[in-house]
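Supplementary Text 2. Reproducibility record for the structural model of the 543-residue chain.

All settings were left at their defaults, and a single model was retained for analysis rather than an ensemble. We include the record here because the model underlies the residue-level annotations in Supplementary Table 4.
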Amino acid sequence: MKLSRIAVLGGGPGGLYAARLLKRSHPDAEVTVYEQGSPDTTFGFGVGLASRTQRNLRQADPDSLDAIVAVSHPHEMSMRVGDHVARLSHGELLAIARTTLLEVLQDHATAAGVRLEFGARRSVADLDADLIVAADGVNSATRTDLADDLGPAISTGEGLYLWCGTDFALPSAIFTPVTTEHGTFVAHAYPYASDRSTFLIETDENTWRRAGFDVSTESTGVADSDETALAYLQEAFADALDGHRLIGNRTRWLRFRTVTCNRWHTGNVVLLGDAAHTAHYSIGSGTKLAMEDAIELDRAVRESTTLDEALSAYESARRPNVEYLQSIATRSEQWWESFPRRADMPVDQLMIAYMTRAGKVGIDRFAASAPEVARRGLAAYADVDPASVPDAATAQWIVGQPLVRGPWSFPSRGAPAQLLSEPGTLRLDADVDSAWGPEAGRLIAEAAHATVVWLTGRGDRDAVLTRLDVGERLRRETGALVVVEAPDSSYDDLVAGLVSLRADLVFVTDAAVADEAVDDGAVVDGVREAERSIEAERTILRL
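Retained model, structure tokens:
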């Protein structure tokens, strides 16, 4: 397919990277990036690059990645609650100043022959090009102008957050909560240069209002930062900041907006990055998604014979990955919005809950990558000496731990089937859209007087993960003993749920019959107790 003119709307990382890749693939084409700002104007602070993203960028364009890595700042990860810290060694985490990243990508785009135009706002109607790539960000004017064709939708999170920075390099990335007289604030912070760190802070709406930030943000000008909030938070996080100041850059309180679109392209126009989709900052940056979009768009254009075929192939290949990441991001967003509820957990156990919060990382994988943190976290879960936690077969060991709670005593965390017939046991179908929405609230109310709540529902993984989230709410809000039922295909998620205190006991069913109805809540013939076999710890109880 021959393209003579390619136009890119938006000179952020995604737009610049797409322009370079497309120019290299189509050296005879005229490729132009249109950016309404000046070359050195940017907002935000650092950009994180995880190891998988680095691998993807290296395969697509090793030269530009080498240049990015050369001016990036490596760091590790930690979680701090009070005086207690859990640290993860991770040698492949990098961060870079957004301004520096833009400089690198501008230089490499220009070196490839891309023309960069700054300082004027352009729209699709202004351009005469074979292909128009709209990389114009979360506030995409292109997406708005073509809304009838693209079908965009935007949902807004419950919590509030602000981006700021500080003038020193933290020793590692850190997640840390601080509780003030108004409520709890949580910082997500990481170093991105030898003298700079990103410092993102979030909180719930009630805390935000009690601190008066609804008023301070309302009175802040468009180009200004909320200095009232910055001064307050600088004092609140004084220990983590080690006496340094917080720096603003149009820093105001926001609610995260999740963008989705029914279509990412129409005619010769295609959306890329935040213009097409967003994912919560707690699972990675929009920069990562945009640059990986660019890689897939370039591949599709190179390998297709018509533009429509190329744009359809780009969307077909990229959409499943993005939607999967968005589903993980939504769970992560809700986990952080509800973070104060679990801040009383021992820090190593809390780190396990954090790493497994969205179902992307299982217990065994985490234990293999961070054995000391996992050992201490599992010891806190089981109330044993860390030395007694095994090096292998971690999941089986977790389920095999006895539980004594109130009048109940169990030899393992596998729920016996007869518990369903005990007085005070309430069996609930927990198939709800969100563990934090009104449907789940009604379940919590229904379970208010139950001694045991047995949660069941669909067998697909998304439903199981939501069921575990409901279980966590039930444990904390009702005090009931919570059993979560799921098919054996979700065994790893159930195990993580136990350690993360999202369930007290688990009941594992055969996947083949997991979605079949159970008559009056009774368990039909075929229950198989496995507590005395090698499967004991897994407690696979079949319906």
